[in-house]
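Might you be able to review the protein record set out just below?
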Amino acid sequence: MKFLVTGAAGFIGFHLCQRLLAEGYWVVGIDNINDYYDVNLKWGRLAQLGISREEVVYGKETKSRIFDNFTFVQLNLEDNAIQEWFGKASFDYVINLAAQAGVRYSLINPMAYVKSNMEGFLNLLECCRRYPVKHLIYASSSSVYGLNQKYPFSTHANVDHPVSLYAASKKSNELMAHVYSHLYGIPTTGLRFFTVYGPWGRPDMALFLFTRAILEGKPIEIYNNGEMERDFTYIDDIVEGVFRIIFHIPQSNPHWNAINPDPASSVAPYRIYNIGNSEPVRLMDFVEALELELNVKAQLIFKPLQPGDVVRTYADTSDLYREIGYKPSTPVRTGIRYFVEWYRSYYKM
């Protein structure tokens, strides 16, 4: 079987590629290596997959020096060249993890989210229409819950009130996927990830930012005066969930009711799941756990809630457990320890 993983140089994409390759599957990874954050970290991830920066040419396949079953292509998802290339590749499964990330950055550069998250995703849907695949899995986000305050967040709840363009672009992906599932019978599954963290994580995320600042003796910014809760989910738990869902291909829900429609399923082969730890952690408790791992006391600067942010996230993963038999379980303290060990090793600190 042949897999396409978009966003292969990204945090989740890199870890998923490792898992698929370890299972012996043939994997093609694509990524545009944009400079939203340090590209050296992205190339560092790819180096772990046997891809050398010096050998990569935009639009051309580069074979891994480590894995016989991995090749990489630097390519924008919205590039029309992907359709011709996709047709020649004959993929069985497509996992779309490529996206312009970041809630706060969407306030500064909104057009980047339209280009990558919407135009790019549409291009991928067209590829799957022209060259049918067994299953398209794509990354959504907990941010789609927006103004919702009914906890835990359920995929069966309405999510029509996002508070950032990033969230709106992810909700748009879910809507676009449903159209293609309905019109063309493409099995699609959207995965709403909840605050993913761990080794090789993104430098714009809280754990990375806090760790760097504390070790450099700089203060960290605590928003909403610390009155925040996040459903922190360890990267290995996310990857395990994605891996299991790949082969759980959605089908029409025979009980779907058009008068009282369920947002998480459809008469089309379409499904939405949450993947989260289902244990919201107070931000101040998170900082305290990090201080203990680093053995350093943080300097704190308290600030008001940022535009586009939400106060609390909390995943209802009952569908994931009932249908897939899986529930994330890594304790936050354990995940923080693994991240700190990686950070100290990678940055020699």
